[in-house]
Amino acid sequence: MSWNTRDAMSLKEEFISLALRPGANRRELCRRFGISPQTGYKWLRRFETLGQAGLLEQSRRPLNSPRQCKPDLEADVIALRKQHPKWGGRKISHKLAVSVAPSTITNILHRHDLILPHDSAASQPWHRFEHEAPNDLWQMDFKGFFQTNQGACYPLTMLDDHSRFNLTIQACPHQRGVLVQEHMTEVFRQYGLPAQINTDNGAPWGSPSSPGQLTPLTIWLVRLGIKVTWSRPRHPQTNGKNERFHRSLKAEVLSGRSFKNLIEAQHAFDQWRDIYNHHRPHEALNYLVPMDRYQASPRSYPQLLGEFEYAPGDVLAKVNDRRIRFKNEYFRIAKALSGHVVAVRQSVQREDLFDVYFCGHWLRTIDFSNRQKER
Q1: Residue 185 near residue 220 (C-beta atoms within 8 A)
Q2: What whole-number distance in Å separates Cα of residue 280 and Cα of residue 24?
Q3: What separation in angstroms does the CA of 14 have from each of 231, 273, 291?
Q4: Which of 176, 254, 271, 346 is most buried, taking the most CB atoms under 10 A from its CB?
Q5: How far apart are CA 102 and CA 98, in angstroms?
Q6: In this structure, are strands 196-199 and 227-230 parallel, antiparallel, or unpaired?
Q7: Among residues 307, 317, 313, which one has the least CA distance to residue 356?
């Protein structure tokens, strides 16, 4: 696993947060985090007794105090803003937990020239649908690319829709499916499997010329029992939470910075991921942090991927040369499914309609009322 690039304190905090969730399977979490049950329970005991100090010897200056005077408060506001240059008055007000209006903090930032006009213009609210529970839907995408001194970096990101919890930010040298699958496997082993993953129509999970077509990567996801969906072509807002996450990543990590190589970029990603998940108040979450709402999935990543069992009434057909043969005719199927077995079953709508499935994923409908042989 590549989690060794991350700060040990961040991993401990995630483990503690997930282990303290009601109904959490602590031994399963220990396995996912690669620690022994003895170590996991030791961390929990130390945390219950000493809090954060039990996990790491670290001086933690209080963010506020009843005895603080206004100049001290102003200094704290300025210090927090300089530490997180893209946080506004509402986030800082909530983070400091003081009875000062966000507008007052915003005025402090303006007085010290810490808010520029384009920052105010960019901070417009986003309104989105939210899934009811963690792991109902994950959003996944690459955040474009940028150049390091030693080559291109393609940040791969995955976000839980309900909690906005970032599951990974990986500095990748390319966008090929084999590497993406490796990183996704690490995420699945640590956090379990989601019910659904939504992506755009680009490689390696889609085909811009044939939206919704399976690729080797999405075939693997379907076999894991994950529902795969794609954004509407030229409508990135379908993956809106991940797009908004990319905006924050650009503003708080990438803008105005350069990196020697992927290792240095990954270190910056890991540091900011810890801030984003554990410390950065999120307005859409009523100023909770994503970890406050996230819980690991009860569906564990399987060690072996078994064969899918179709229903007894299904007609099975093997994909050869991008086609299947059904009722003495040939019908096109995605190239990536060559060699796989699909099922054809009669539609509930009409007797002359037949739906084609790969595992539980609908591929297409065959309409015998409009017979056109496909070659």
Answers
A1: no
A2: 24
A3: 30, 11, 8
A4: 254
A5: 10
A6: parallel
A7: 317
Q: Which two tokens stand for residue 253?
A: 């990590």
Q: Map tokens 């690729």 to a residue.
A: 215
Per-residue pLDDT tens listing for the chain (375 residues)? 444 445 677 888 889 999 999 999 999 999 998 899 999 999 899 999 888 888 764 454 555 545 444 677 777 777 777 777 767 777 777 777 566 677 676 777 766 666 654 454 445 444 456 678 999 999 999 998 999 999 999 999 999 999 999 999 999 999 999 999 999 999 999 999 999 999 988 889 887 777 778 999 999 999 999 999 998 765 555 577 888 899 999 999 999 899 999 999 999 999 999 999 999 888 888 889 999 999 999 999 998 888 899 999 899 999 998 899 999 999 999 889 999 999 999 988 888 899 999 999 999 999 988 766 554
Close Cβ partners of 166 (under 8 Å, ≥ 6 residues apart): 157, 158, 159, 160, 245, 273, 276, 277, 290
pTM of the model: 0.75
What tokens appear for 157 in the block?
């990101």
Q: Which of 334, 342, 335 is nearest to 318 (CA)?
A: 342
Backbone angles phi, psi at 233, to 5 degrees: -55, 135
Q: How far is CA 324 from CA 161, 190, 312, in A?
A: 36, 38, 19
Q: Around 317, how many Cα atoms within 13 Å sit in the side-chain half-sphere?
A: 22
β-strand 329-332 against 323-326: which pairing, if any?
antiparallel
68 phi-psi bin (left φ>0, alpha ψ -120 to 50, beta other):
beta
Tokens matching residue 130:
């939210």
Q: Which amino acid is at 186?
A: E
Beta pairing, strands 341-346 & 329-332: unpaired
Cα maximum dimension of the chain: 85
Residue 333 CB neighbours (<10 A):
24
Ordered by start, the domain boundaries in the chain are: 3-54, 70-122, 138-293, 315-367
Strands 196-199 and 138-142: parallel
What's the length of the chain? 375
Q: Is 59 exposed, middle or buried (0-12, 13-18, 19+ CB in 10 A)?
A: exposed
Helices (H), 63-101: 70-83, 89-96
